[in-house]
Design a protein that fits this description.
4-stranded mixed β-sheet; 104 residues; alpha+beta
Length: 104
C-alpha cells in the first residue's frame, strides 16, 4: 500500500507504508508521522490528528510510542547562564589545563 504525503519542498509524493512511521507521545497523546521524501531525501515530520493516526496505523504504518524527556520534569535552580559565563568558559577552554580548571 502506498500513501500520498506532502514534502514542503517537493509537494505531493508517494511513500510506501514501510517508509513511514507514526509516533504518539505517551504523556499527551499527540500524534505525528514522519518519512523521508523519496525525491529530495529530506526528513519530513508532521503533526497528525487522531483520525489520521488511526488511518495510517490501520493501513500498516509502524507505530512508535515515545515519552517526553525526563529533564522536562526536573526542578531548575540557580542563575541562568549569561554571555559572560559563556565567555569565561571559552577562555578556560583555551588553557592547556582546562579540565583541571573545570573540575576545580
Amino acid at each position: 500500500m502506498n500513501i500520498r504525503a506532502t514534502c514542503p519542498d517537493c509537494g505531493d509524493v508517494v511513500i510506501s507504508r514501510e517508509a513511514m512511521q507514526v509516533r504518539i507521545c505517551a504523556e499527551d497523546r499527540s500524534g505525528s508521522y514522519c518519512f523521508q521524501c523519496p525525491s529530495c531525501k529530506m526528513r519530513v515530520s508532521k503533526a497528525a490528528e487522531d483520525r489520521i493516526v488511526q488511518l495510517l496505523v490501520a493501513g500498516g504504518v509502524e507505530l512508535r510510542i515515545w515519552h517526553l524527556p525526563a529533564e522536562l520534569y526536573e526542578e531548575v535552580g540557580g542563575a541562568r547562564i549569561n554571555y559572560d559565563d559563556i565567555l569565561d568558559f571559552h577562555l578556560v577552554l583555551q588553557r592547556d589545563d582546562w579540565m583541571e580548571q573545570i573540575l576545580a
